[in-house]
């Protein structure tokens, strides 16, 4: 599966949530994944888990015999990051399609939030902004490492009654070289 097809596969909201529930080496059963995605019907969840298995994104790491049935434990399959050649082979149109899929997914999540019977953007910490800063490539990589460490720590948190799932989307765009 090429990188464009894989990215399109992962941009589906249900599949993205499945993958997010398994990041950082987590190993979960479909029942445990379902517990983190209460709004997704079981049949839909199983269909998307199977799609991720078929594509090689997920793997079964363990099977447990439980009262006459076999419970499968899933994890993300270790994958090599795409090569420079694979990333370079993605066309301008494919990049734009992937970006539009991503932003449409964000808009859908925001619409879901606004369609709640009651919401409080201040209390809930909802926000969106855009800022610019001047960084060398080295300073930029240092910033990404620091942000990555903080996000990994937050993503390792287990669900609990006092925690609420929150979404953070990142888009990084350098100014075109001819405008710098």
UniProtKB/TrEMBL annotation:
Xref: SUPFAM superfamilies: Winged helix' DNA-binding domain
Question: Which parts of the sequence belong to the HTH arsR-type domain?
Answer: 5-95
Q: Does the keyword Translocase apply?
A: no
* Superkingdom of the organism of origin: Bacteria
Quote the InterPro entries the UniProt record gives. Answer: ArsR-like_HTH, HTH_ArsR_DNA-bd_dom, WH-like_DNA-bd_sf, WH_DNA-bd_sf
- Enumerate the GO terms in the molecular function aspect: DNA binding; DNA-binding transcription factor activity
Keywords tagged on the record: DNA-binding
NCBIfam families, from UniProt?
PRK06474.1
**Identification of the protein by name:** Helix-turn-helix domain-containing protein
């Amino acid at each position: 599966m090429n990188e464009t097809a894989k990215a399109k596969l992962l941009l589906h909201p249900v599949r993205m949530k499945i993958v997010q529930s398994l990041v950082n080496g987590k190993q979960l059963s479909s029942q445990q994944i379902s517990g983190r995605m209460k709004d997704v019907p079981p049949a839909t969840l199983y269909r998307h888990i199977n799609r991720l298995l078929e594509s090689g994104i997920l793997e079964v790491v363990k099977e447990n015999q439980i009262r006459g049935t076999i419970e499968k434990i899933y994890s993300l399959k270790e994958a090599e990051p795409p090569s420079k050649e694979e990333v370079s082979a993605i066309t301008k149109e494919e990049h734009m399609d992937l970006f539009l899929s991503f932003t449409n997914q964000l808009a859908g999540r925001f619409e879901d939030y606004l369609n709640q019977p009651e919401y409080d953007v201040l209390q809930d910490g909802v926000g969106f902004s855009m800022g610019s800063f001047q960084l060398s490539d080295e300073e930029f990589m240092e910033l990404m490492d620091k942000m990555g460490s903080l996000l990994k720590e937050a993503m390792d948190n287990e669900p609990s009654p006092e925690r609420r799932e929150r979404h953070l989307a990142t888009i990084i765009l350098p100014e075109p070289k001819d405008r710098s």
